[in-house]
């Protein structure tokens, strides 16, 4: 933030009501900031010496410190102002005054959060200079008046008296209280969420999206956009119908005359032609669209002018109610009469025609549920204040006070109107006079006509203004690429979104029937209100540390009740409309989850997942997981053992192999890499490497997390990882790494020592080990394999090899393969009995595999060495020669060190006969694999542990001989527990 922004701050922008005091920002020449002077080093530990010199605390002006603010710290050298810099709080590494001034960016200045949760986007928050608004609105003009204007509308003037006549006074009071309670509880939830942090454009979409996630936010936000667009058509039709009622001569087509059957009123009812409604409605919508193109400033200036006629017309209506008498020349108006009150107390639900007039032969039957759908739009509009959050002086105070005041005021007005209208006229008059409010208005009906037209046009203008901005806010978040056409730069009008909204509004106007549109509007608004309530319910129930709303009068039970009322009202109105609206929201949610850009908005669901994970982790405890519930949690060691491109942090096939260890994608992998060096020096490199590795894992569609560890050496880094990685029973249980096929040509000492040390650390830490040889030839998900998956079962491994082979079969690339189990047995064992036992064991495990028993006996070098005639003999001879040469070098080096053989920095004991035996054993096993499994898709063999006191170089020679000429091999070592079980 520039210093000029701080110095030019206006006091009103920073006033915050708290405990009766108003806080103001620190500005230039402010002498309220104390600066501590330096204390003599000799007396720093003596409190008395400090207290005896009070002059060392002085007052300074802020302008002396702006130079340090731009430098971001305190220079090491004193410079010109070095004496003053010594007085700063250097221990904390910053200037205290600069940080006080920096509070402006967190209080009054708007925070420019990332416009969308794009992949790979940096999580840092960028601060930008807030635009200076010409007008800052208070609670009255910023929230109360817009909410009042949106709530008081067409339904009150031309439908409310009819509702009282149809439902009666009693059920009308219940209807108003029921709908009012729903919006009141929603207002409480809205107040809590809106006071929990700064709000950006988008109104309820922004609140719901940040609370329930992008998918839910976009789905409900688009439905709320459709509701606002359809509501615009509702208001336009109401204005046109009122105009044609007031001026019948303006009708182009012939009016519809409806005869009244079964009522005491003899004159017929004349209704405007539907074609007139369509034509005039389209014209009015186009005119309003041009006004919207003029900009929001003009709309804000004329908005209060629309409300004044509304309030004046309400005043005239109530004057007319008290002035009406029984001798009123209009038939059916009795004045305030107790007899009329008693007659109209109970309901009189019946059939009506298309004009809403009672008719025994009518097509529409009205009941309480249908009236809820007709009346509920009369209580909507509570979001008008939150949509203006950027123009409010004090968002934290204005939104809850203004919204709740408007909700309570209109609900009280409706309740009083029910009592007055029910005692004013007969039921027939209430049911047949669609504009009874104009009939009774004092001194003449034209005032009410003008009020209705201006109020509906003002509400329509607000809908055509708010809906495009809502759509533009959704598009600007860049969640759905298909909405990019509706994006609008900051400070610019969303013209394309406005045209699209006008198109939807015109399509609804063409329908022409007001009663068909109101249920649609009701569903979309109820869906939005339920989203607000669920957001507050989730946030309040989870009670994360970031949940600190200033509005304290809320509870999760109230939000849950509000959400339940919204759902109940939806089904009361129409279960078919409810299913359609929920299906539409679900389709949008599904589309966003597939096509939308992933990201994290810190929503409540992520908090719920976090708490659920913690609770699940605690419930697992420290006990071992039962074999039935065992899942592989592989620790993928990303050491490439070779060269990779700079932009590839992990071997491309290692992620493919990690996916093969999961059943239907369930499970988690931990990808770990180690950076050599000092942590303080390479901490930033580790962060960048971790981000790069995480991005690469997502690119490979592997469910896993990336971890980067900085350590003096790879050996020490891995030893720390294998001890500390994971929590409780969610620690990794399998270490997966690539076989270092390049060890001989790269480094004869470092790679063997590191490789053997990693295997020994895994054995000590009780981790299973899987080493992949031939990783370059490992198939991806699109390369289908045929043949067999061969297991060479030598030692008991808890069933890990069997389980891995079954997991491989669940992948498309290996699903055409069959499993063969080769049991390596001693020569003198009973092969048939072993085969029978293994078959029974596999049957009990629900695994299908062919069992083959191969007999081997301990090899004697002198007896069997000369008879080995297979293709592995050449590799065996070369290994013998290299080991002999290495042993000679060790012995020559030991002569100068007291005849102690040293390898890998430690003394070793070499039994040459045992070395030969190990070589012959691996030679025989390699020959067997080549004989039976040359065409296998993949071979699994037990991993022999590194022999004690043998040099790491010898073990690598054993392994090289074992994997010789086998293209794709998995060396598996289990750990001290079973991973499969016979029992259900």
UniProtKB/TrEMBL annotation:
Chain intervals with Polar residues compositional bias: 40-53
Domain SLC12A transporter C-terminal residue range list: 652-773, 784-983
Domain Amino acid permease/ SLC12A: 142-610
Membrane-spanning parts: 137-158, 173-195, 216-237, 277-296, 303-324, 365-386, 398-420, 440-461, 496-514, 520-539, 560-592
Domain of life: Eukaryota
UniProt membrane topology term: Multi-pass membrane protein
InterPro entries in the record: AA-permease/SLC12A_dom, SLC12_C, SLC12A_fam
Region (Disordered): 1-27, 34-53
One Gene Ontology cellular component: membrane
Subcellular location: Membrane
Alphabetized PANTHER family for the sequence: CATION-CHLORIDE COTRANSPORTER 1 (PTHR11827:SF100), SOLUTE CARRIER FAMILY 12, CATION COTRANSPORTERS (PTHR11827)
Identification of the protein by name: Cation-chloride cotransporter 1
Protein species of origin: Manihot esculenta (Cassava)
């Amino acid at each position: 933030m520039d210093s000029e922004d701080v110095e030019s701050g206006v006091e009103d922008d920073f006033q915050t009501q708290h405990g009766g005091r108003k806080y103001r920002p620190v500005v230039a020449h402010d002498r309220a900031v104390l600066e501590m002077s330096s204390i003599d080093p000799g007396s720093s530990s003596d409190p008395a010496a400090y207290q005896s010199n009070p002059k060392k605390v002085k007052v300074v002006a802020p302008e002396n410190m702006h130079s340090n603010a731009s430098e971001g710290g305190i220079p090491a050298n004193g410079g010109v102002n070095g004496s003053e810099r010594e007085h700063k709080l250097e221990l904390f590494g910053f200037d205290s005054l600069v940080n006080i001034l920096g509070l402006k960016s967190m209080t009054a200045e708007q925070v420019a959060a990332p416009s969308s949760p794009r992949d790979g986007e940096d999580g840092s928050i960028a601060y930008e200079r807030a635009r200076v608004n010409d007008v800052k609105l208070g609670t009255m003009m910023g929230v109360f008046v817009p909410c009042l204007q949106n709530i008081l509308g067409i339904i009150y003037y031309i439908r409310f008296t009819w509702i009282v006549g149809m439902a009666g006074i009693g059920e009308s009071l219940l209807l108003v209280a029921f709908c009012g309670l729903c919006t009141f509880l929603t207002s409480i939830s809205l107040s809590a969420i809106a006071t929990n942090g700064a709000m950006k454009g988008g109104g309820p979409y922004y609140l719901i999206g940040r609370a329930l996630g992008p998918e839910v936010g976009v789905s409900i936000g688009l439905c709320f956009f459709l509701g606002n667009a359809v509501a615009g058509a509702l208001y336009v039709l109401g204005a046109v119908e009122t105009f044609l009622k007031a001026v019948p001569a303006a009708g182009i087509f012939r009016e519809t005359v409806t005869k009244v059957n079964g009522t005491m009123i003899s004159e017929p009812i004349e209704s405007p032609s539907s074609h007139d409604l369509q034509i005039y409605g389209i014209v009015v919508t186009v005119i309003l669209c041009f006004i919207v193109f003029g900009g929001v400033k003009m709309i804000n200036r004329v908005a209060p002018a629309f409300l004044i006629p509304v309030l004046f017309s309400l005043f005239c209506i109530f004057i007319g109610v008290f002035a009406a008498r029984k001798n009123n020349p209009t038939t059916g108006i009795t004045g305030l009469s107790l007899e009329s009150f008693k007659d109209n107390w109970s309901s009189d639900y019946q059939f009506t025609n298309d004009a809403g007039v009672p008719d025994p032969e009518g097509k529409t039957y009205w009941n309480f549920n249908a009236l809820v759908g007709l009346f509920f739009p009369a209580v909507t509009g509570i979001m008008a204040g939150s949509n203006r959050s950027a123009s409010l002086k004090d968002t934290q105070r204005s939104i809850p006070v203004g919204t709740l005041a408007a909700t309570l005021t209109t609900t009280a007005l409706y309740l009083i109107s029910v009592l007055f209208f029910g005692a004013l006229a007969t039921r027939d008059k209430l049911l047949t006079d669609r504009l009874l409010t104009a009939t009774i208005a004092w001194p003449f009906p034209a005032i009410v006509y003008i009020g209705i037209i201006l109020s509906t046009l003002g509400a329509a203008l607000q809908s055509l203004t708010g809906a495009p901005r809502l759509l533009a806010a959704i598009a600007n978040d860049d969640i759905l690429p298909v909405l990019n056409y509706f994006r609008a730069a900051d400070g610019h009008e969303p013209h394309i979104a406005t045209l699209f909204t006008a198109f939807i509004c015109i399509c609804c106007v063409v329908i022409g029937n007001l009663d068909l549109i109101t249920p649609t509007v009701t569903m979309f608004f109820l869906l939005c209100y339920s989203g607000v309530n669920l957001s507050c319910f989730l946030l309040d129930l989870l009670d994360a540390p970031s949940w600190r709303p200033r509005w304290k009068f809320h509870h999760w039970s109230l939000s849950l009740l509000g959400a339940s009322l919204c759902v109940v009202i939806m089904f009361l109105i129409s279960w078919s409309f409810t299913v359609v609206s929920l299906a539409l929201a679900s389709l949008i949610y599904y589309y966003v989850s597939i096509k939308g850009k992933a990201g994290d908005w810190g929503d409540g669901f992520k908090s719920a997942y976090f708490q659920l994970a913690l609770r699940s982790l605690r419930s697992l405890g420290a006990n071992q997981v039962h074999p039935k519930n065992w899942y592989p949690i592989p620790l993928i060691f990303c050491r490439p053992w070779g060269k990779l491109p700079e932009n590839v942090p992990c071997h491309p096939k290692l992620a493919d192999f990690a996916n093969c260890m999961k059943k239907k994608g369930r499970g988690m992998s931990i990808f770990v890499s180690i950076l050599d060096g000092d942590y303080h020096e390479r901490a930033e490199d580790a962060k960048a490497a971790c981000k790069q590795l995480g991005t690469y894992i997502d690119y490979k569609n592997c469910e896993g997390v990336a971890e980067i560890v900085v350590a003096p050496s790879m050996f020490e880094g891995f030893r720390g990882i294998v001890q500390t990685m994971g929590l409780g029973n969610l620690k990794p249980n399998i270490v997966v790494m690539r076989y270092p096929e390049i060890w001989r040509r790269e480094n004869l000492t470092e790679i063997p020592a590191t490789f053997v040390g990693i295997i020994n650390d895994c054995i000590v830490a009780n981790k299973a080990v899987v080493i992949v040889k031939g990783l370059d030839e490992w198939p991806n998900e699109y390369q289908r394999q045929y043949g067999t998956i061969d297991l060479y079962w030598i030692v008991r491994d808890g069933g890990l090899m069997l389980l891995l082979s079954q997991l491989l079969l669940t992948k498309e690339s290996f699903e055409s393969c069959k499993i063969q189990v080769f049991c390596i047995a001693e020569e003198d064992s009973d092969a048939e009995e072993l085969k029978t036992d293994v078959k029974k064991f596999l049957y009990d495990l629900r695994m299908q595999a062919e069992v083959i028993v191969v007999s081997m006996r301990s090899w004697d070098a002198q007896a069997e060495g000369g008879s080995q005639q297979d293709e592995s003999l050449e590799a065996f001879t070369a290994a013998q020669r290299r080991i002999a040469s290495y042993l000679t070098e060790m012995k020559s080096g030991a002569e100068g060190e007291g005849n102690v053989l040293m390898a890998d920095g430690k003394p070793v004991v070499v039994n040459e006969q045992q070395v030969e035996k190990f070589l012959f054993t691996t030679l025989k096993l390699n020959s067997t694999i080549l004989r039976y499994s040359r065409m296998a898709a993949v071979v699994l063999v037990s991993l022999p542990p590194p022999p004690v006191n043998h040099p790491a170089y010898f073990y690598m020679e054993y392994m090289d001989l074992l994997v010789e000429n086998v293209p794709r091999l998995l060396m598996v070592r289990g750990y001290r527990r079973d991973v499969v079980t016979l029992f259900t």
